[in-house]
Each structure stands twice: as C-alpha cells, then as structure tokens.
Amino acid sequence: xxxxxxxxxxxxxxxxxxxxxxxxxxxxxxxxxxxxxxxxxxxxxxxxxxxxxxxxxxxxxxxxxxxxxxxxxxxxxxxxxxxxxxxxxxxxxxxxxxxxxxxxxxxxxxxxxxxxxxxxxxxxxxxxxxxxxxxxxxxxxxxxxxxxxxxxxxxxxxxxxxxxxxxxxxxxxxxxxxxxxxxxxxxxxxxxxxxxxxxxxxxxxxxxxxxxxxxxxxxxxxxxxxxxxxxxxxxxxxxxxxxxxxxxxxxxxxxxxxxxxxxxxxxxxx
Length: 270
Prior knowledge:
The protein is mostly helical. The protein folds into three domains: 1-110, no CATH class; 125-187, no CATH class; 192-270, no CATH class. The chain is 81% helix and 0% strand. It is built from 17 helices and no strands. Helix 8 (112-122) runs antiparallel to helix 9 (125-142). It is elongated, with a radius of gyration of 27 Å. The relative contact order is 0.05. The model has no long low-confidence stretch (mean pLDDT 86).
C-alpha cells in the first residue's frame, strides 16, 4: 500500500490527470481511498485551475469527496468567489457541502458580515446552523455591537441555535464595553436568550461587583439559572461585605424557597 501511495503522489506532482486515471484503475475501493488521501496535499499545491477541473469532471463520488474540500480550502485563500462557485457546482452532495464549508471557513475570517449575508440566503438548512455559529463567533469578537444588533433582528428562515449565539455576543460585548452590553441586555425581551445573556454578565462581574451581579440575577426568569447566578453573587459578595450581602438576601423579592439556600450560605460558612 505504501508503494501505491508513493506512485500516486509522484504522478500527482507531474500529471494530475494521469494520477486520477491511476486511481480509477485500482480494483479495490479501500485502495483508491487511501491513495486519494495520500495525493490530497500534492494536488492542492498544483495548479488550482487544473486540479479543480479534473476533480469536478470526475464522476467518481469518492474522488470528489476525498479531494474537493482541500482544493476549495486552498483556492478560497485568495479567491473566495471562484472557490465558492466551483464548490457549489460539484455533482456529489457530500463533497459539495464539505467544500462549501471549507470556503466559508476562510471567508469568515476575512469578512464575517459578508459571510453571514451569504448564509442567510444560500446555505442548505442542514448545515446552516453550524456554519452560522462559526461565522457569528468570529463577528462577535471583532464587532460585538453590530453582531448583537444583527442577532436582535435575525431573519426568518435562519436555522440557528440561538443560545450559543447569545452567549458568544454577550461575552464579547461585556469584554468590549460592559456598560453598552448591560444596556443591550436590559432591552432584550423576556426569553431564555435574555436569561442566558444575564447569566453571562453575572459570571463576568460577580467577583468584582457582586451587588450588581445579585441585582441582575434577581431579574432572571429561569429558576435554575437565576438560583445559580444568585448563589454565585452572594458567595462573592459575602467575601467583600457579609452584612450587606446578608441584608440583600433578606430584602430580595424572591420566594422563600429560593431564599433558603442563600441564607444557608451565611449559616454554614460555605
């Protein structure tokens, strides 16, 4: 098998067309797969024009599945539009999705806004969520204010897991501008995403400003998240000012059932 791989790599260096013909001549699928894997890097370094044409014209699904994503990734480093158009033209569905994903992975790093716009209208719903999450994380780090604004008017039809997106932008926004982030969170309507954003805020401020953390936690709707955030804030506050923390729990407008474990913090010294 090592000798077959070496032959394949050597052919790919000199004549990609002959290399693929050699793969086609192999009698066993497992052999073809392994030789293609060995040729992958070499073909990526050859003329993109030649390699992409040969792979697109080859009707063996395995050839496209093994080689297309690598070619697309290499191509998209300098020509996103060309790589994307080529990837979308591939006949094999699995290869097409993989290649498009690799192109978007490079595009995201250079222009997350344009990538998001493309995803909104062009990406298969089956992969839209994971691609969108990756793009959004990148955008959140570079411009959390714009990312938060876009998230608040998320277009209908976008298949997205909202909670990790809210967590991503809340974390980035709080690090970038805590006051603006707090105002954004205040403007969110009651929802699991708002609770998650508050939880993220509390996690960031509890140790330095536990009083504010306690106030924010008290405004959460989700019982488990609220209880955990209240406890985190009280524990931090107790270290700074035990009497003030105790009085805040006594005065808090929360159910007695929720107060009990918080008051126990002061009783058992936990």
